[in-house]
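Retro notes, item 3 of 5
We never archived the inputs for the nicotinamide-adenine-dinucleotide complex last cycle. Fixing that now. Sequence and ligand:
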Amino acid sequence: MAAFLSTSDLFKNVMKTMKEAGEIANISPNALERLKTPRRSIMVSIPVSMDDGNIKVFTGYRVQHNQTLGPFKGGLRYHETVNLSEVAGLATLMTMKTSLLQLPLGGAKGGVEVDPSKLSNHELEKLTRSFATELGPFIGPDKDIPAPDVGTDSQTMAWILDTYSSESGYAQTGVVTGKPVEIGGSLGRDSATGLGVVYTIEKALETRNENIKDVTIAIQGFGKVGLHAANEAFALGGKIVSVSDVEGAIYNPEGLNIRELIQFSHEKGSVIGFPGAKAITNDELLFLDVDVLAPCALDGVINSINVNNVRAKIIVEGANGPVTANASHILNSNGIMVVPDILANGGGVVVSYFEWVQDLDWHFWEEATVRGKLKSVMYKSFDKVWSFSKEHHKDMRTSAMAVALLRLEKALKLRGQAW
Ligand code: NAD
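Structure as it came back at the time:
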């Protein structure tokens, strides 16, 4: 494997879990060898003529990890820390996620090394269109289908769709998912990842004979994942005692009114200052004595250094890689269940798949249909991982990866790509 691929902690953590899961599930060394390295890593320069008249060149990436089960699928991230190794780790996780969730899709991820908050809307549009042009030969409804991630949204997807369709000469709505409903998006896509997190919380609680109505929940991050997770859990009667964003966290042991908080954060640009809640730090949120902790912002926030401060009983990974592989082992031995990212935040890619199917069919579903089908996939996937975990006496992270690897191994063997 090229050495530069394995420089990030996220990539190393994914490889570690894959190796452990491969041993438990007795996956053939050939299959594992293939899955260790992405199929294609694309790195592009994106020159943008900025509003001040100067040219600035940004670096963009798309890593297409594996397409054994179907076209590549995965988000695009705009963040100043984006790098090839991290994108490769996230692309590998996408392959595992689509496999675990029984979708006919492979795994990819991409991003641009940029702080989007420092660019005007006009600059962001130019950046996105140039990036889409560079990626043009490699993406497409039957090749590779990007979606939003950190720092990108439905507008970003609309610009990519428009650029790709203009260059093809006809409307190709299936080239991206997570786009606005008016141009081929799916109802229920915005809230899908957060809703999936909540379905996972329900299932994790069920294993302890508990109900979401009777527990306390803390959620780190109030973006596309965290906000909807909070909103959906609140709608089911869950008591969300703490949430946070990049500015810090807020805490109210009596529970936060999430409907009012969403309104407040839209108006003020942050959750900080919400009436009746005490300001705490993002670290303090992670160490609260709650039933469920859902880190829905960044990777590596729970690690070997701080893991013993965690007091939650269940951790549900809304973000990708928020708990490191080592920390996960320590939490498991402390009796804390960690529901891993490839299961817990899979709701986004499940509804992306539904969106893609609707686009290819030119036929769109009611939101209740989307939610019902999502619930069924999330519940079934949880049950599969839980059964593997009970049968093999293994934690949920290793079990989820093992279930994903078993499906991939079968497909690789059938296609003659491994034996
Ligand atoms: P987002 O950009 O919409 O939101 C991120 C949130 O994290 C924001 O509230 C931001 O203020 C907060 N944040 C940023 N820096 C922080 C810090 N230092 N401390 C605490 N909070 C901080 O991103 P998102 O789409 O919600 O993605 C969050 C995570 O979920 C990422 O790991 C992403 O890969 C993963 N994910 C997203 C989706 C999706 O559908 N959007 C699907 C699967 C996984």
